[in-house]
Amino acid sequence: MIKKTAQELDRAVRRIVEAVGTPPENAARVAHILVGAHLAGHDSHGIQHLPRYIREVRAGDIVPAGQPEVLRESGPVVLVRGRWGWGHVTAEFATQRGIEKARRFGMGLVGAVEVNHIGRLGHYAEQAAEQGVVILLSAGFKALTAPTAAPHGGRKALLAPNPIAMGFPSTPGAPVILDFATTQVAGGKVALAKAKGETLPPGCIIDREGRPSVRPDDYFEGGALLPFGGHKGFGIMVATEILGQILPGADAFSETPHGGVHYRHAGLSLVAIDSGVFSSRHEFASRTERLVERIHGVPPAPGVHEVLAPGDFEHRARSLRAQQGIDVPETTWKEILETAESLGVGSVMPS
Fold first, then answer.
1. I want to staple 38 with a disulfide (CB 3.0 to 4.6 A). Which of 34, 46, 274, 308 is the partner?
2. Cα 20 to Cα 56: distance, rounded to the nearest angstrom
3. What is the mean pLDDT of each run of 10 residues along the chain (351 residues)?
4. Which helix (H) or strand (E) holds 69?
5. For the chain, what is the total number of helices (H) and then of strands (E)?
6. Comparing C-alpha atoms, which of 44, 176, 185 is closest to residue 117?
7. What is the secondary structure of 222-289 as a DSSP string?
8. Nearest-CA neighbor of 167 among 104, 122, 131?
9. What is the DSSP string of 275-328?
10. Long-range contacts: 311-316, Cβ < 8 Å, 24+?
11. CA 158, 197, 32, 114: dihedral to nearest 10 degrees?
12. Contact by Cβ (8 Å): 346, 8
């Protein structure tokens, strides 16, 4: 592992992303979200994706200058078209439309199509919570051509990790944030384990024959991710597929140019609710904070240091890593530098 500051990683991502024709303001958004994943303690959703993103740009799957647009709008309902640009930019655009609708109508429903990989969903939940808005996000991929997640009891992949996130404003502490794949682990965490030379916890993946495995290579050699919580987690995976992919009608845009095999059918849906819709934003945040305090007040079980509320981990990691820096696997940083060299910006990368 090597140590990098958030500023060094941000600068590296911006230079690489701008080098393929991304407008500076969009490159800044992509960098903020990728580096923000590291700061939040989720290295699996950070810069390790960048070399793949650049390959997808070169293949025509990501349109680096693509800008999202509102395709249809009626009252509190909006359909956003990402135009196969950076998924992070599309997701931020859709989230902001949802926040605006929630502020105006009390709640908003936003769907997005032509969506590439959007990174850590918790970022968008935090974005809404910071503005006093409750949000529920569902990302469905319907990986018809490249499935990665097996159904409960199945021996081969059918769907995708189909993440879901929720955010709730709180005061004066951190917002309550839930963000998780509907698989036991996200594919990015398998890739991170591989980069570190580590094995996975039992129950995360199966190999190509449907047998349980802890070897990351077995996943990349035809295996599959497993749903969390058995049949219950699989049920949430299916529900997320319906909400995130079927509801916005992503299939209707699957034959448009770009998008690649992984995201051809990808969609995103979010419900945004003004936290003061039934009382006031301050009352909502105060009541949420009291709930968090009750959670913190529960005595920890043997072997556990303290009981945390959802979002505490990220809040603490952000403060710690901003001060101490971010550990990056040497293999990942080598890939980043090689990618920069191939784009002619290697000389201006952090050493």
1. 46
2. 11
3. 92 96 97 96 92 94 96 97 96 98 98 95 96 96 82 93 95 89 87 88 94 94 94 95 95 84 87 97 96 96 95 91 91 92 83 69
4. strand 69-74
5. 12, 12
6. 44
7. T-EE-BTTHHHHHHHHHHHHIIIIITTTGGGGTTSS--HHHHTT-EEEEEEEETTSSS-HHHHHHHHH
8. 122
9. TTSSS-HHHHHHHHHHHHHHHHTSPPPTT-S----TTHHHHHHHHHHHHH-EEE
10. 311/174, 311/175, 311/176, 311/177, 311/178, 312/174, 313/41, 314/40, 314/41, 314/42, 314/122, 314/174, 314/177, 315/173, 315/174
11. -20
12. no
Domain architecture of the chain: domains with CATH: 1-58+311-351 (1.10.1530.10), 68-183+227-296 (3.30.1370.60)
The answer to whether the CB of 101 falls within 8 A of the CB of 76 is yes
Contact 250, 113 (CB under 8 A): yes
User: CA-CA distance, 67 to 78, in Å (whole number)?
Assistant: 16
The closest of 304, 301, 282, 285 to 293, measured between CA atoms, is 285
Q: Could you tell me the CA-to-CA distances from 185 to 32, 173, 181, 194, 214 in Å, in that order?
A: 23, 28, 7, 13, 12
State which amino acid sits at residue 325: G
The one-letter amino acid at 312 = D
